[in-house]
């Protein structure tokens, strides 16, 4: 008889060949059935759906407000940009006129000088007058000629980098004239009152200032500026009803501060608000139903099992395998355990078939193999006679990818293949020709094979003789029949005779009493057994030494 050298990779439930389940779809739904389905969908989830509808409605209105704010912000920013560009053009024209007048070589206020000053004012688009100062008094200008009595200039509103600035100063020559003025040295220019005509038309509720960077001097005012904060610049997250914009020149000491009101849904057409509410309500209800269905699907056992198998969520225990003659520990069977996401244990005979139906049997087997070899690695490497067994499905046996995975796993862990036993259920042998080929290839690689749960299937002795087996595992229903007088117990001796005839080993499952152990020792002294009498499944750190 061959000495068992195996490992049984198992999930405590034998991996069966996945079955293809037919699905029938009916596309014809009556109005009443749709209504009924909707009521079922809402049942027990109405509060969540209502909450989702309210949240989505709020998000819809908030999004609409954000879009309205963005629209008004873009309009205000565009206006501020145009106003700043105009202010820079006016400042550039004034600076140019000051520099050109200062460069004249004509005697101040002579006819020739006045002619040159008039020419400068005529050529400038935004300068109305150019004059000369003496001791802070206006002596002459292109528009007024030589003054009979020089006009004293008031204290400037702003002094910056050699320039003196006045805003809306009046009464210099004529009390009816008020204008912005700027001076440098003994040259003074008057800004054209129409310099900002292109940008002085504001929409209702808007206001703007053209001012210095520190807001110490205001050049121009447009619209309602009573509530305008010159230093405020609006952030992207500000969704209130008032818009603010601030722009500053990179060339001149000039900034623009602008403000607009009424960025609010309440100021829009009521039909728009009603439409948004309906849209948000319907969208929220639909989303609530979708999320509810998704959560229910995610909480379902198949989905939880899928995450556990693909995410390393299984745990392993090991049931001792002992020789009946001297109770020596020769190996262990690997059993997988799983608790759902609520912490409740799920029996292997529930989750293993479920994994097979989801075509996750291969992934489950790989996780079990990987974890078992890692947890038992030291024990297996230290004792070449010790083995571990796993349950595998017929699909795994004929799968070349699983064979490659198994070979790579044993090589990486440094464990001999003879110490890894593969158990396949007798019920899995329907496609015996393909199965026999797959088993032959794996046995050639060095893995022993057991038939698990023997006696629960339909194979006969001749059929078993065709499979490349090392041992059979007698199902525990035969073991439980020992000493009961049941006719089933009479089959045990025939099984023992068969194993001796086929020259294969025997593993007895479900040994729970000494009577059962003694009967099996008498019938098959070389038998290996497992059961609560010989050791219960335990984690690797609780596994006995011998």
From TrEMBL:
Highest taxon, organism lineage = Bacteria
Localization (cell): Cell membrane
User: Which taxonomic lineage does the organism of this UniProt entry have?
Assistant: Bacteria, Pseudomonadati, Pseudomonadota, Gammaproteobacteria, Lysobacterales
Which spans are transmembrane here? 48-69, 271-293
The record ties this protein, via Gene3D superfamilies, to: EAL domain
Q: Provide the catalytic activity annotation.
A: 3',3'-c-di-GMP + H2O = 5'-phosphoguanylyl(3'->5')guanosine + H(+)
**EC identifiers of the protein:** 3.1.4.52
Q: Which organism is it from?
A: Stenotrophomonas nematodicola
Primary enzyme class: hydrolase
Q: Give the chief site where it resides.
A: membrane
Protein name, as recorded:
cyclic-guanylate-specific phosphodiesterase
Checking Pfam families in the record gives: CSS-motif (PF12792), EAL (PF00563)
Signal peptide range:
none
Q: Where is the EAL domain?
A: 298-546
**What UniProt keywords apply to this chain's record, in alphabetical order?**
c-di-GMP, Cell membrane, Hydrolase, Membrane, Transmembrane, Transmembrane helix
This protein's membrane topology, according to the annotation, is: Multi-pass membrane protein
* Keyword Cell membrane recorded: yes
């Amino acid at each position: 008889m061959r000495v068992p050298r195996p490992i049984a990779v198992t999930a405590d439930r034998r991996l069966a060949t996945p079955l293809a389940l037919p699905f029938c779809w009916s596309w014809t739904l009556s109005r009443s059935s749709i209504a009924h389905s909707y009521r079922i969908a809402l049942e027990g989830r109405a509060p969540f759906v209502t909450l989702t509808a309210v949240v989505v409605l709020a998000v819809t209105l908030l999004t609409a407000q954000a879009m309205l704010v963005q629209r008004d912000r873009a309009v205000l920013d565009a206006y501020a940009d145009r106003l700043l560009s105009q202010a820079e053009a006016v400042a550039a024209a004034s600076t140019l006129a000051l520099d050109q007048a200062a460069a004249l070589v004509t005697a101040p206020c002579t006819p020739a000088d006045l002619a040159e000053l008039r020419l400068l004012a005529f050529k400038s688009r935004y300068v109305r007058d150019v004059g000369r100062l003496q001791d802070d008094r206006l002596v002459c200008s292109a528009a007024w000629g030589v003054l009979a009595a020089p006009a004293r200039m008031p204290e400037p509103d702003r002094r910056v980098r050699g320039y003196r600035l006045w805003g809306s100063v009046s009464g210099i020559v004529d009390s009816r004239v008020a204008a912005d003025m700027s001076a440098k040295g003994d040259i003074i220019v008057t800004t054209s009152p129409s310099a900002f005509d292109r940008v002085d038309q504001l929409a209702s509720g808007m206001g703007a200032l053209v001012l210095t960077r520190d807001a110490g001097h205001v050049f121009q005012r447009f619209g309602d500026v009573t509530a305008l904060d010159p230093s405020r610049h609006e952030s992207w997250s500000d969704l209130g009803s008032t818009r603010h914009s601030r722009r500053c020149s990179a060339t001149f000491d000039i900034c623009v501060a602008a403000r607009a009101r009424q960025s609010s849904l309440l100021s829009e057409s009521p039909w728009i608000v009603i439409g948004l509410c309906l849209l948000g309500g319907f969208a929220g209800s639909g989303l609530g139903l979708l999320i509810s269905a998704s959560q229910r699907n995610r909480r379902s056992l198949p989905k939880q099992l899928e995450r556990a198998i693909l995410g390393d969520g299984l745990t392993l225990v090991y049931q001792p395998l002992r020789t009946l003659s001297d109770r020596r520990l020769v190996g262990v069977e690997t059993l997988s355990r799983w608790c759902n996401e609520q912490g409740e244990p799920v029996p292997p005979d529930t989750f293993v078939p479920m994994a097979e139906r989801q075509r996750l049997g291969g992934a489950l087997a790989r996780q079990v193999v990987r974890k078992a070899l890692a947890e038992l690695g030291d024990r297996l490497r230290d004792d070449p006679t010790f083995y571990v067994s796993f349950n595998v499905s017929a699909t795994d046996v004929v799968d070349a990818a699983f064979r490659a995975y198994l070979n790579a796993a044993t090589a990486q862990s440094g464990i001999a293949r003879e110490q890894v036993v593969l158990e396949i259920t007798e019920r899995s042998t329907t496609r015996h020709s393909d199965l026999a080929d797959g088993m032959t290839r794996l046995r050639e690689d060095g893995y022993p094979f057991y038939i698990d749960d023997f006696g629960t299937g339909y194979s006969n002795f001749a059929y078993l003789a065709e499979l490349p087996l090392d041992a059979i595992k007698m199902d525990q229903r035969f073991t439980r029949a020992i000493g009961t007088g049941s006719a089933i117990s009479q089959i045990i001796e025939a099984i023992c005779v068969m194993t001796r005839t086929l020259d294969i080993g025997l593993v007895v499952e479900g040994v729970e009493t000494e009577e059962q152990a003694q009967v099996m020792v008498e019938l098959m002294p070389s038998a290996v057994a497992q059961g609560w009498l010989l050791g219960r499944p335990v984690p690797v750190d609780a596994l006995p030494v011998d």
